[in-house]
Specification:
- The complex is a heterodimer of chains A (253) and B (152).
- By secondary structure, chain A is mainly alpha-helical.
- Chain A contains twelve helices and no strands.
- Chain A has helices spanning 5-26, 35-63, 69-75, 85-88, 94-115, 121-149, 153-166, 171-174, 178-185, 196-209, 232-241, 243-247.
- In chain A, helix 2 (35-63) crosses helix 3 (69-75), helix 5 (94-115) runs antiparallel to helix 6 and helix 5 (94-115) packs antiparallel against helix 10.
- The longest helix of chain A has 29 residues, at 35-63.
- Chain A is globular, with a radius of gyration of 18 Å.
- The two termini of chain A are 30 Å apart.
- Chain B has 152 residues and is α/β, with parallel strands linked by helices.
- Chain B is 22% helix and 24% strand.
- In chain B, the strands form two sheets. In chain B, strands 4-7-6-5 form a four-stranded mixed β-sheet. In chain B, strands 1-2-3 form a three-stranded mixed β-sheet, covered by helices on one side.
- The longest helix of chain B is centred in the middle third of the chain and has 15 residues, at 54-68.
- Chain B starts with a helix and ends with a strand.
- The chains are: A mainly alpha (253), B alpha/beta (152).
């Protein structure tokens, strides 16, 4: 029996965003285009997985069904994940990975900044810790996007292609549904769509410096945060991420 | 019978950080509190970065140090708020870091000088370094790369 189903769902959205993106970014480990990039990506991945530990631990407590953060991460199937579609998309080239990161980081920072004032103290505490780490993520991905966008002809065209590809996944981050409304009414978090104006301003400013053009149109893929329809990529990612627990249930270090 | 808390703090002063062994877990501000609850010693620790892999090792090292001093009834609790900040690092720790070759954190967001040659002409290589708490910088004078302990 779930003690607080909407709150549990909402916490899974936070924890699954950081888990799935953390895993995706970790796929670069040992394959970065330069040593510094490799180290940076591994560090960002580590931060995100550390934050996942906090969000999913709290989700397990709120659910009150005896599930730990590890249980939630390793023993749920794709349809139970609540991450946005953007973060489950494959890495592509380094430019695409960094564009995905840049678009998520700016949302993530705004989200955590508002959560630091959450009516739920546990949420506020996690956000206050995570916001320090994400401030560095934003700084880095923004610098890289500007450097590559305003770089060579080759890097510019790859970054524009990455932006065109990633942009339709941005809208889902800000789409508010019934769970968001409940959470907002309880003062736990503001509605995600209230963050959009500040997001557009920050992202557009950086993309202008990067000499990149924001695609026209607001079409947005959806189905990730609701769990209604993930892209096929999530299941493939989980077969790798969850392999050990699936093959050897209950295995411990 | 029970050792004084001041004495226990002294023991933990001797527990090095596993990744930066020149400073102790107390000097880094990782140990937040010690208290006796009856015969049970409660140790409150806080992680530096939420994903720092050293966190688990630090708890094991603390437990081992306390057991070596004869304390068998103990519990280590992790607390995340208030979030760890480099402001908690002691002045001694900052000096030790600099002597070790790691530029200590500064409010300005970057090292004030090269920890090797002391030249203030330094530039950043990357916001991320060999551990979550460090960034990579380079001295433009002696040309040596060095770690900077990020200010958070």
């Amino acid at each position: 029996m779930s003690a607080d189903a909407p709150f549990f769902e909402w916490l899974c959205r936070l924890g699954d965003n950081t888990l799935v993106l953390g895993h995706r970014v970790s796929e670069w480990c040992g394959r970065g285009p330069a040593l510094e990039e490799d180290i940076a990506l591994a560090n960002i991945s580590l931060d995100l997985i550390g934050q996942t530990q906090m969000w999913l631990t709290l989700a397990g407590e709120v659910e009150n069904a005896g599930r730990s953060a590890d249980d939630l991460a390793m023993l749920r199937d794709a349809w139970d994940f609540r991450n946005a579609l953007l973060v489950e998309q494959p890495n592509g080239d380094f430019g695409r990975t960094m564009m995905r990161q840049f678009l998520f980081d700016h949302f993530h920072l705004l989200q955590l900044q508002t959560l630091a004032d959450s009516a739920d103290q546990r949420v506020a505490d996690i956000a206050a810790k995570a916001v320090k780490e994400v401030t560095y993520h934003v700084e880095r991905s923004t610098e890289v996007v500007i450097a590559l966008g305003d770089g060579t002809e080759e890097s510019h065209s790859r970054m524009q292609a990455a932006l065109d590809w990633a942009w339709p996944y941005v809208g889902e981050l800000f789409a508010s549904d019934a769970i968001d409304v409940q959470i907002a009414e309880r003062g736990i978090a503001p509605l995600p769509d209230t963050l959009r104006v500040a997001y557009d301003q920050r992202v557009t400013s950086a993309l202008t410096k990067a000499t990149l053009t924001v695609p026209e149109g607001r079409f947005a893929h959806s189905g990730g945060k609701s769990g209604f329809r993930h892209s096929e990529h999530l299941g493939h990612m989980l077969t790798q991420m969850q392999w050990l627990q699936r093959a050897y249930p209950g295995a411990q270090w | 019978m029970k050792p004084l808390l001041a004495e226990i703090w002294g023991w933990l002063e001797a527990v090095p950080d596993p990744e930066i062994p020149v400073v102790s877990v107390v000097e880094l501000g990782i140990v937040r509190d010690l208290s006796w609850q009856g015969d049970l010693l409660k140790v409150t620790v806080t992680p530096t970065y939420s994903g720092c892999p050293a966190t688990a090792v630090i708890s094991m090292d603390i437990e081992k140090a306390l057991r070596d001093h004869g304390i068998s009834d103990l519990r280590i609790e992790t607390q995340i708020a208030p979030a760890w900040t480099t402001d908690w690092m002691t002045a001694t720790a900052r000096t030790k870091l600099a002597d070790y070759g790691i530029a200590p954190p500064t409010a300005a967001g970057g090292p004030s000088e090269c920890p090797r040659c002391g030249d203030p002409n330094v530039s950043r290589v990357s916001q991320f370094g060999s551990t979550p708490c460090k960034a990579q910088w380079r001295c433009n004078s002696c040309l040596e790369p060095f770690d900077y302990f990020k200010c958070i």
